[in-house]
Design goal:
mainly alpha, about 50% helix, elongated
Length: about 60
């Protein structure tokens, strides 16, 4: 990286950009997934029994 004087300068820049992005996500009303779409994934609840593995079965 010829434009940076040393590795610490690169780390400082990257850290500053990540902090700024984090602050924007915290302040804004942004979400990775919308609640309505994720609710459709769980329309029914799974109440079936799940077989347990006994230590003697392994």
């Amino acid at each position: 990286m010829g434009i940076f004087p040393n590795a610490a300068a690169v780390i400082l820049l990257a850290r500053s950009v990540l902090i700024e992005m984090h602050d924007e996500w915290i302040a804004g009303d942004r979400r990775y997934l919308v609640e309505d779409s994720t609710a459709k994934l769980y329309d029914t609840s799974d109440t079936e029994s799940v077989a347990a593995v006994e230590s003697s079965d392994v």
